[in-house]
Amino acid sequence: MLTEQGVLRASIAVTVLIAVCGIVFGVLSGSFSIAFDGAYSLADAGMTALALWVSNLIVQSAKDDALARGFKKRFTMGFWHLEPMVLGLNGVLLISVAIYALINAVISVLSGGHDLEFGFAIVYAAVVLVACITMAVIGMRANRQLNSDFIALDVKAWIMSGGITLALLIAFIIGYFAEGSRLAWIAPYVDPAVLAIVCLIIIPMPVGTVRQAFSDMLLIAPLDLKRHVDRVAIDTASKHGFLSYRAYVAKVGRAIQVELYFIVPQNWPAKRIEEWDGLRDEIGAAIVGEGQTRWLTIAFTADPEWAE
């Protein structure tokens, strides 16, 4: 649990186990909501496996071995662009599964509901709720050090699954005690009704992740990063006598891309390459520290067209 890959592997294993249990208990109890929980978990496991694969690619490409050098020859820009793709696909898939389940739940309610074995359902919901809480806590603790978007989304998925399961558990307990009482008529509606409510709650939850993922894929400049780069560029131009600058920034997953072009006056005195490199180091340090997640280009030109 000390690495992003370790957390994701554990999450995949537990999610697959829950998915299998969900499908089995869904069949035994006749519960659409439990079957949905299993299908939802299975989809989440698939997306987490994809996230693990991308994470492994990013980590492997940063190493200095034969495999990493082979990657760098074919993927010279790295693998950072895959991260928002996976996050966006994950969010869209989870939203789509929830919308499909909501439609089926509404149809079931309008059709008069269905009978349910509440005993099986309560056992399943209690066990899965404990598993969801445990995995969410483990992921949050690990991510305090790792600060991974993949783990953050995985924790959100566990919280969502825990919320679903808690709602199911409460509804199943109510349905169990309603049987044989004056409220027995509500028992057939418990399963589809709670499924509809849960879907309405979880559908909006991945929207923020999807929005951010599409912003990264479309290379929309983050406003705080753009303001920071502009401030550094303005200070640099004023300090060294440059005429103006052009700044291009983007965030791709956990990586940032910055291109800075400084317009220098015509017929400036010549400088040694080492002096220009020293100036680049100064600007780079002011923008952001060194690291594998930074792609920084700084150029100097007397022709503004080269900066457009």
Describe the structure.
- By secondary structure, this protein is mainly α.
- The chain folds into 2 domains: 4-217, Cation efflux protein transmembrane domain (Alpha-lytic protease prodomain-like); 223-307, Cation efflux protein, cytoplasmic domain (Alpha-Beta Plaits, 2-Layer Sandwich), CATH 3.30.70.1350.
- It is 69% helix and 8% strand.
- It is built from 10 helices and 3 strands, in the order H-H-H-H-H-H-H-H-H-E-E-H-E.
- Strands 1-2-3 form a 3-stranded mixed β-sheet.
- A hairpin with a 2-residue loop joins strand 1 and strand 2 (255-263).
Quick structural summary:
By secondary structure, this protein is mainly alpha-helical. The protein has 10 helices and 3 strands.
What key phrases describe this protein's structure?
308 residues; Alpha-Beta Plaits; elongated; 8% strand; mainly alpha; Alpha-lytic protease prodomain-like; 2 domains
What about the largest sheet? 3 strands, mixed
CATH architecture heading of the largest domain: Up-down Bundle
Number of β-strand runs: 3
CATH topology of the largest domain: Alpha-lytic protease prodomain-like
Proportion of helical residues = 55-70%
Count of alpha/pi helices? 10
Number of domains: 2
CATH superfamily heading of the largest domain = Cation efflux protein transmembrane domain
Please tell me how large the radius of gyration is: 26 Å
Could you give the distance between the termini?
Answer: 46 Å
Oligomer: single chain
Q: Give, in spatial order, the strands making up the sheet with the most strands.
A: 1-2-3
Q: Which percent band covers the strand fraction?
A: 5-15%
Instruction: Outline the low-pLDDT stretches.
Output: none
Q: Kindly provide the name of the CATH class of the largest domain.
A: Mainly Alpha
**Computed structural class:** mainly alpha
Q: Mean pLDDT, nearest integer?
A: 83
Shape: elongated
